[in-house]
Amino acid sequence: MRERIGRVSRKTKETDITLSINLDGQGKNQIDTGIPFFDHMLDGFARHGLFDLEVSVKGDVEVDSHHTIEDTGIVLGQAVAEALGDKKGIRRYGYFILPMDETLALGAVDLSGRPFLNFQAEFTVPRLGDMDTEMVREFFYAVSYSAAMNLHLKILDAGNNHHMAEALFKAFGKALDMAVSEEPRIKDVWSTKGSL
Predict the structure, then answer these.
(1) Whole-angstrom Cα distance, residue 106 to residue 101?
(2) In which band, very low, low, confident or very high, does the pLDDT at 63 lie, cut at 50, 70 and 90?
(3) Could you report the per-residue pLDDT of 96-107, keeping only the tens digit for each?
(4) Helix (H), strand (E) at residue 44
(5) Which residues contact 149 (CB under 8 A, 6 or more apart)?
(6) Would you tell me which of 114, 149, 155, 175 could form a disulfide with 121, CB atoms 3.0–4.6 Å apart?
């Protein structure tokens, strides 16, 4: 089995990001985005998706959290796409319903080569730590479009806003882990088109 690791660096006037992801990892991670709550969310994604993830971001957090979080989403999506390569032999689809105390979140992924985000979650506070809650959607939008995946994330039962955000990140990790996992019965790309 080939090594499925994506490494991407991206530097703009707003952010300087270096990121690597191993799709066949153990959930080990080193994350420093300058936004502790966002670090916590990425830790949950990596740990529960069993991805080894290293993220280093220097962003203009003195402005707000927007550029750092959105650009990290772009880079993560690019790294996932790089790690997947031609997508031969993967399950392609993944889904998970994740409970977190009173909160229930659904995550579903199709590594189709077509970007789309369906995001349904209503937060009742503007911020969680130093992270604007509206940036949860913006992060997943950036990931879905830069990785060219269909991504559906929904809060089925709402509650504590911290639990809602964390459940979404973990559900995404679990669903993506299923989608990128290898299917031994499939040797080619799982598509009637012959490519993804």
Answers:
(1) 14
(2) confident
(3) 999 999 999 999
(4) helix 36-49
(5) 77, 80, 109, 110, 111, 112, 114, 115, 116, 143, 179
(6) 155
